[in-house]
Amino acid sequence: MSKDCDIIILGSGSTAFAAALRAQALGSRVTMIEKSTPGGTCINWGCIPSKTLIHAALFRQEARLGEALGVGTMPDVVDWERLAKHKNRVVKGLRKSRYLDVLQAIPDLQLIKGTGHFIGPRTVAVGDQVLTSERILVATGGFPLLLDLPGLNNVNYLTSRSALLLKKFPSSLIIIGGGVIAVEMGQMLTRMGATVQVLEHGKRILSRMEFEPVQAVQKALQKEGMKFMLDVKVLGISQSGNAVEVVVESNGQRKTFRAEKLLLAAGTAPSSRGIGLEKVGVAVNDRGYITVDDQMRTTAPDIWAAGDVTGGMMIATVGAREGIVAV
Question: I need a surface site. Which of 19, 35, 296, 300 has the fewest CB within 10 A?
């Protein structure tokens, strides 16, 4: 069988790019396939836009601390529209310099727009185009996990992605979830002036981290104004005029929370469906994450997987390292 390239990579995020650059440096011809925006989650809907806003929120928090010391620098208004434009410029600039310019500058590295899916061993289809290669890396990442909560589909809720695209600053926010995304987004919006209520089904926030540091983090966040309710069960979600209402139960008691916006921050689901993994014998676990060994090999010959789609530490630098290991 003739081959179109040495390695096909499904995805174009930080994991995919790190793998592509290493493979190209080792003399391989690389083809990446991307159905969405080049750069993946981190550059477009994750690390870069969120940290840009978090950095801006830090300025406002420092001004508040200065005000308490007698330094009259406290700003009264957050120009969200102007801040959003700044965030978009940062994202666009880094996408160009870190991804698009690299694609144009490096030979034997190409990007095809479209949805790639397996149709057989060492064979991937993108639209009407069929590609073959010696190796294939699945680095398709993930997307915001949605929970089956009563009434959720009847309200205009936010996810970790859409929250970063808000055109109007919310005066109040309810966050369902207590992980990293919930804590980061909640603190940023609190520091910007919003009233934030976190509802977590577990007995503590940041459940994967050590207990004592988490307690210190929660205490610091509460001091800044964030509110937490733990060990809750969501009974119902509804739209009430321009606000969202969430009814929960905790310790046998019901309570209703009301806010302008609702953010669902329940984690990340793998982008492993609809790409034909079952046709080539790639196993996934009960949550859909691809099963790999310590060399990022899947259960199918000549197919590797890395990054968020494998369910490990969902950090861009970790995914990049996994991509390098895979190739």
Answer: 35
